[in-house]
Amino acid sequence: MQDYFSISLEDYTVEEISAFCGPKDVYLDLLCDSLNAAFVIRENELRVHTSASCDEALITLVVRKLFALIEAQKEITERDVIYLCKLAQIGRLQDLDVTRTHAIGRTFQGKSIYPKTLGQRYLCQCMENNDIVFATGVAGTGKTYLAVVYAVSLLKRGEVKKIILTRPAVEAGESLGFLPGDLSQKVDPYLRPLYDALYDMMGAESYQRLQERGVLEVAPLAYMRGRTLSDSFIILDEAQNTTPEQMKMFLTRFGAGSRVVVTGDVTQTDLPPGKQSGLTQALEVLRGIPEIAIVTLDRSDVVRHDLVQTVVRAYETYESTRKGGGHDAG
After folding, report:
1. How many CA atoms lie within 13 A of 18 on its CB side?
2. DSSP assignment of 15-63, as one string?
3. Residue 83 CB: number of other CB atoms within 10 A?
4. For every residue of 63-87, which 3-state class applies, written as one string?
C-alpha cells in the first residue's frame, strides 16, 4: 500500500468521533470494505491508508458527509455508512445535503425518525409542500412508514384533526363477507402494517384512546365511499390493488384542510389479469399537475436488510430477461 493521507478531526468532539467509528469500530470496518482503504485514528486525525486505485477526494467527501450527518442527527447507523459510500461510488453523494437533515417525527419511545435516502428526503419534502402525493416504489423503501410518521407529527402540531388510513382489502376486491369473524377481525390482517406504524409512533394505549375519540381511523377502502374528509391526513396504502373506479372515488373524497398520500408498488398488483390498476391509471392521468407530487422510490431507497436490495435486483433482472427473451409468461 502507498503512504497514508490524513483528514483532520480537530473540529469534532470526542462523542462525534466515537459515533463516527461506531460500536467496536464497526463503521470503520464498513468504510474499509466499501472504499478499499484502511482507516486508523491517531490523536486528532484520521489516517487513511489507500491503494493506487483509491480516490482521495471521494474518501474525504464520504468522511466529511458522515460527520455532517452526525452533527445533524447526533448519530449514524450502519445503513447510513453503506448508503453514503454507495452514493459516492455512483457520483451522487454531492446531491445529499445532510446539513438540511431534520427529524420528521419521534417514536413512542422518543427516537427521532429521519429520512435516510435521497428518495425518502424528496418524499418528505413533497409531503410538506403538496396536498396530494403519490409515492410508488418497491418493498422496503419506507413509503407507508414515512407517511404515517408525518401524519402523526401534523396531528401532534394541530395541523390536522384526524388521521385516516385505508387499504383495499382481500386482493382489491374487498370481498370480506366470506371471512370468519366480525368486521374488525376480517379487516385487521390487511391493515396490520398500518397498525404497526401507528403503534410505533404513539404506543398502543394512545392509539386506542385516539381511535375511540374518532381522531384515528383505520378502515378498508370501501368505507370511504360517500364521505367528505376535511381537516384530515389520509393515507391510501397498497394502492396498486385499487381499480380505476376505486381510485377516482378515493381521490374525490378529501375536503378542505386535508392532505392525501397514496402509496403502492405497481409491480406487485393482485388485480385479476387484464384489469388495469387504479394507481397506474392515476399516475398517467394526474402527471403534470403542479399541485400533485409523484415520487418514485427504487431499490437504492430500500432501508430494510441489505439483502432486500439484492432480492429486488435479482427479480428485476429475471423479469427483464423473460420479457426480453420472449418467454411464455404462462
Report:
1. 5
2. HHHHHHH-GGGHHHHHHHHHHTEEEEEETTEEEEEE-TT--HHHHHHHH
3. 21
4. HHHHHHHHHHHCCCCHHHHHHHHHH
285 contacts: CB under 8 Å, gap ≥ 6: none
CA gap 308, 316 in Å, rounded = 12
In the chain, the percentage of residues whose pLDDT exceeds 70 is 87
List of the chain residues with pLDDT < 50: 1, 170-174, 176-179, 182, 326-330
Look at residues 183, 185, 202, 197 and name the one whose alpha carbon lies nearest to residue 263: 197
Q: CB–CB of 262/279 below 8 Å?
A: yes
Q: What's the CA gap between 144 and 197, in Å, rounded?
A: 8
**Per the structure block, which three cell numbers stand in for 102?**
431534520
Q: What is the C-alpha radius of gyration for the chain, rounded to an integer number of angstroms?
A: 23
pLDDT of residue 219: 82
Q: Which residues in 214-232 are b (16+ Cβ under 10 Å) and which e?
A: eebbbbbbbebeeeebeeb
